[in-house]
Amino acid sequence: MLQLQKGVQLLMDNKQIPDIVVGRLPLYLRTLQKMARETIQVTSSLELGERLGISAAQIRKDLSQFGEFGKQGTGYNIPFLIERIREILHIDRVWDVAVVGAGDVGRALARYQGFADRGFRVVMIFDNNPDVIGTLVADFTVQNTAGLVEAIQNAGIKVAMVSVPADQAQSVTDQLISAGVKAILNYAPISLSVPEGVWVQYIDPAVHLQRMAFYLA
Amino acid sequence: MLQLQKGVQLLMDNKQIPDIVVGRLPLYLRTLQKMARETIQVTSSLELGERLGISAAQIRKDLSQFGEFGKQGTGYNIPFLIERIREILHIDRVWDVAVVGAGDVGRALARYQGFADRGFRVVMIFDNNPDVIGTLVADFTVQNTAGLVEAIQNAGIKVAMVSVPADQAQSVTDQLISAGVKAILNYAPISLSVPEGVWVQYIDPAVHLQRMAFYLA
């Protein structure tokens, strides 16, 4: 079932990995880290697949794109696989993250404990509401969005989460990009326009609910 | 560019539509509704594609799966297309939604204004923390999770959002399913196991950030 380990050969040109495979790696990692917390040391593509609802063949195929991870007959070494996936995803470091928009969602993100040990930490939060600027959210003083570009540029921040109203999201995004941000997680219910070399992911709960409603009678 | 309208022929067997196409319909809908608010009446697959970052050919192909929506030379009628997509997604009605977990995320969901006019409304929220049970979130009194199955069954609720800690998410999910819930939006950072006929979608900001980090130098 598992192939002989030949050493990990990371592909240098990330562009060759289909984005859909990249998208599954964080899910593999999350499950492997949960197994590690359960003090499981070794797993198989079959066991991983059952936990993830993904076929064992798919998992073997995905992981083989990045080199040979398993040893025949002994399965995948979980701590080793976790470290390799963290390297591949560039989260064997911690990325500083800015949050723009200190409403319910932004405040929840600034306080969220789930980023720890997953490669990210919120370091600043912005809002344009005079009543909110200067207030405390978690350990952060909410900063004026007017100073966003300078603050993010000075801190060298590359990752941001946008939780402003839909009609402000594109303008905030444009400012983030001019400040050097390359990856944006957008909570505003609107499609953003970004130049080549900037990545956007979307979180819109209504979109997810609508997708499932299709399958409801 | 656009084909002659032959009348909308909705497919009766939803199973024939690839899930990836179903997943794009809410994005089309969101953009069309934004255009409608801008009082735009007619659009083209080219214009839609530019707003969405999706090719015009992809949009034409997706929409053709559900019938012929456009008229040659005159483009897509936006209000008509909105209504058809709402019908296809079964959101030409309002689905009642239960929220389980009244922490930061659950409270933000209960207060979120973004579900209005998108087919869903939160109608109840649960927590198992005695300090939280009985408190007010938006207009709702937080109910004891111990009464979840009965309350959801009695209300006939089919849709739920789970925002409890990871180690409680599977047990809450099992209760929701036993109460008749068919669609679950899970905010807990864990893969859920559900039987055939139950749909799960996941929101985990760290997963989205990790996916983008792959592309960062």
- What's the CATH topology label of the largest domain in chain A? Rossmann fold
* Tally of distinct domains of chain A: 2
**Biggest protein-protein contact in the assembly:** A-B, 59 and 59 residues
Largest sheet of chain A: 6 strands, parallel
N-to-C span of chain A = 40 Å
How is the largest sheet of chain A built, in terms of strand order?
7-4-3-8-9-10
The CATH class label of the largest domain in chain A is Alpha Beta
> What is the oligomeric state here?
homodimer
The ordered H/E elements of chain A are: HEHHEHEHEEEEHEHEEH
Tell me the β content of chain A.
15-25%
Derived structural class of chain A:
alpha/beta
Short recap of the structure:
Chain A is 39% helix and 17% strand.
Describe the overall structure:
The structure is a homodimer of 217-residue chains. With 217 residues, chain A is of the alpha/beta class. Chain A has two domains: 14-88, Orthogonal Bundle (Arc Repressor Mutant, subunit A), CATH 1.10.10; 95-208, NAD(P)-binding Rossmann-like Domain (Rossmann fold, 3-Layer(aba) Sandwich). In chain A, 39% of the residues lie in helices and 17% in strands. Chain A contains eight helices and ten strands. Chain A has helices at residues 19-37, 45-52, 56-64, 78-88, 104-111, 148-155, 166-178, 205-213; strands at residues 42-43, 76-77, 95-100, 120-127, 136-137, 140-141, 143-144, 159-162, 183-186, 199-202. In chain A, the strands form three sheets. A six-stranded parallel sheet of chain A has the order 7-4-3-8-9-10, sandwiched between helices. In chain A, helix 1 runs antiparallel to helix 4 and helix 2 packs across helix 3. The relative contact order of chain A is 0.10. Mean pLDDT of chain A is 89; it is low at 1-15. Chains A and B meet through helix 1, helix 5 and helix 8 of A and helix 1, helix 5 and helix 8 of B.
